Structure formats: C-alpha cells, structure tokens
Amino acid sequence: VSGSVPDDWDVATSAPPEQVVALFPGSTWENRFGTVTVQTDDGLVEVTTFRSESAYRDARHPGDVRWGASLTDDLDRRDFTINAMAWVPPGPLLDPHGGQADLAARVLRAVGDPDERLGEDALRLLRAARFAATLDLTIEPATAAAVRRHAANAGRLSGERVRDELVRMLRAPVPSRAIGLLEDLTLLPVVLPELAALRGVEQGKLLGGDAFDHSLRTADALPASDPVLRLAGLLHDIGKAPTAADGHFIGHEGVGATLAEARLRQLAFPGATVERVAHLIRHHMVLYSSDWTDAAVRRFLRRVGADQVDDLLALRRADTAASAGPETRDAAADELSRRLALVRQNAALAVTDLAIDGNELMAECGMTPGPRIGRALAHLLETVTDDPSLNTRDHLLTEARKWLGGDAAQRSEPGPTSGNH
Q: What are phi and psi of 250, to 5 degrees?
C-alpha cells in the first residue's frame, strides 16, 4: 500500500532448502514448508523454496508439500491477490492474479476460487479481516461470502494463531475496524464469543449504541502502543451479557474478569497478560469520591497495585470517552491521579516497604517461623497505611509486641461450646 513501510521481505527461490542452508552458514531450517531463516547484517530473512501443495487437511495444513514448482505455481497457492505478486530483479513485477489492480482499487480478493482458497487454511479467514481493516480495503463480495461460509473453521485454529492475529488487529490505528469486520463476517462468535454476546445488550450511554459498540470505542480510545491495555478495553464489559437484569449489570466486573481469564488462557496468552487484563477488568468500576481520606487512597493503591494503577486510570478515561465522547474529561480520574501522585511518594504499599522484616520480628519478638509472621506484617502494613510517619523500626517493633500480646490472648480464649449453636 502506498506510503507503507514493510516490516520484512519474503524471499522465494527455486533452490531446495538443503541448498539454501548450504549457501548460508548459520541458517536454520525448522519446518516442512521449505522456509530457511538466514542471518544477514540487517537481520533475519526468511527464504522459502517454490512449492506446490496437495489438498489441505484440518483446514490448516496441506497434506503434502512438494519442491520444484515454478514461481507462477508458487504464487497460485497464495491467499489473496495482493499477496500473490513477486519481483524478479531486474525484471518487472510478476502479477498473474491482478494484485496491483486490486491494490489500486483497494480491494481484497482471494486468489482463484475463494471457497477453495479460504477452505484450505482457516487462518486466512482472520487474515481477511485484518488486511481489510488495517489496509483500508473492501473485501470483494465473493471472497466475503466465502469467509462467512467457512467461518466455523476458525474454531479449529490453535489458540496461538488466533491470539497472534488479534494482537495484530489491536496494534492497528483503529482496532474497531478489524473487530467489527470479524462480527460482520460471522467470525467473532467463533473466536471471541463473550464479546460477540454484547451485541444487543442495551445500556444508557450518552453516545448511544449497545455494549458491543461501547466496547469497540473503548479499545479505540486506548494507545496502539499497548495492545494488552487495548485488549482490556475491548473485554472490560463482557460480564454485562450474563449479568444483565432490568437495565443493571450488578457484579459484571467480577464476572467479566473470570470470563476474560478463561478465554485468554484458551488463546494461549502469556500468564502475565492474562493476569493484567483480568485485574484491570475486575477493578474498572472503581468509584472515586473526593471525601476519600489519604489512607483510603493508599489502600486503593495497595489493592490495585502501584504497577497497575496508571493502566486502570487510562482504562477509566477511555471508558468515559467511549460513553460520553472523546473530548469528555474524567474529572474523578484526574483528581484521583493527582492524589495518588501525592500519597505514593512515602506510602508503604507492600510488606517489603516496611522498616522491619520477618527476620527482625523473629529476632526481636521471640517469634518462630510460621503464618503468624505474615499476619503480623500485614497488621503493621495496615498501621502505616493509616499514618506513613509510623513506618519506623522502633514504632513497628512496639506495635508488633502489642499486637502479638493481643493475638496470643485471643488465641487462648475458649471457643464456643455446642450449647451456643
């Protein structure tokens, strides 16, 4: 596409993989599709042998791969015409399927028979939506119809394949275009059914639309540089469909976090990503009030996590923009952000921030290793949350001894007898 800078170059050759490996010491050949990874001064280059393929099995892999095809034969097996062009230096562009004309007309068209091309490899179904959305193309009607006919095959893709396509969509300038196309092409119920279920879930937002429209606007309002944060924005309300009752969605944040965690694990997202998204969804309904004390702000910071609070505020602002318009300021988020900046300067947010540790407690208070150490440190952390100036070694030891005395007394009290039940 005019003005786009390619991320990499695909090189094709008539040489079999063994010959390519021999020509480039240090190169690697790790798959059965003839792709050799060559190390160059400018980075890695993938070199693939011209090949032809037999009928595909499982809507993903060809039953047999054969070397020795011509370049034209190799292009015939590509997915879309815009991907079925090649340049043989110094000659002209080889374009047997009209890819240049389709690019000029901004059309995405399958190579040859669309049912055959899209039925071969289910990943092409998702790629159709991504290419059309990110390159601003219109999917040719016969190709779009074939995507819809084969949409169920996307359910046979590995989680990793679906995940990678979704992340690419979320990196686009306007991710809602790709997600909207997934819905239009009937792919969304297959790959993200929890999000698809939001269509028709009405809610009283100033900008109108249903919960699905709102979710797309929220993702768009978050930065393209952070696709995981956009993923949280896209999924933040998926708990609304199962909790909808009389125009209310009580507890949807907790339900949504659980649903998101299960889906993202199925899609093989890294554990840290799953936890981050679920955590943000679980806390996205925080309702800040100006009458919060500094201790309340510190407790909020501890609960959300200092490493997550900025993301949560970004999600809140995006949620507000998706509800009332991009120019709308979230005054509560702004005020909370200001107060957080003040209180986090000297706040103890974890037991590791305390002026003493478990070893000192054992040495100074005669304690032995066990659960009471953790309970004592938790009590001390709560104490300095109320008043950070108390986070000194002397005060914490005094407070620990006082707490230990009360804890011991409480533990020695007789429990209720059966007659009290």
A: -65, 125
Confidence at 413, pLDDT banded by 50, 70, 90: very low
Q: How far apart are CA 49 and CA 61, in angstroms?
A: 17
Spell out the residues 6+ positions from residue 102 whose beta carbon is closer than 8 angstroms to its own.
Answer: 81, 82, 108, 109, 140
Distance in angstroms (rounded) separating the CA atoms of residues 187 and 17: 36
Q: pTM surpassing 0.90?
A: no
Helix, strand or coil, per DSSP, at residue 244: coil
Q: Are 185 and 193 in contact (CB under 8 A)?
A: no
Judge whether 65 and 49 are in contact, CB under 8 Å. Answer: no
Which pLDDT belongs to residue 342? 86
Instruction: Name every residue whose Cβ is closer than 8 Å to that of residue 353 and which is 6 or more positions away in sequence.
Output: 347, 381, 391
Which amino acid appears at position 115 of this protein? D
Residue range 329-381, pLDDT digits in tens = 899 999 999 999 888 777 888 889 899 999 999 999 888 899 999 999 999 99
pLDDT of residue 15: 87
The whole-angstrom distance between residue 285's C-alpha and the CA centroid of its chain comes to 19
d(CA 92, CA 82): 16
**DSSP for residue 79:** S
Q: What is the edge-to-edge ordering of all strands in the sheet holding 28-29?
A: 10-13, 43-49, 35-40, 28-29
Nearest-CA neighbor of 144 among 115, 166, 170?
A: 115
- If you search the block for the tokens 């949409």, which residue do you land on? 151
Give the whole-angstrom CA distance, residue 55 versus residue 77: 11
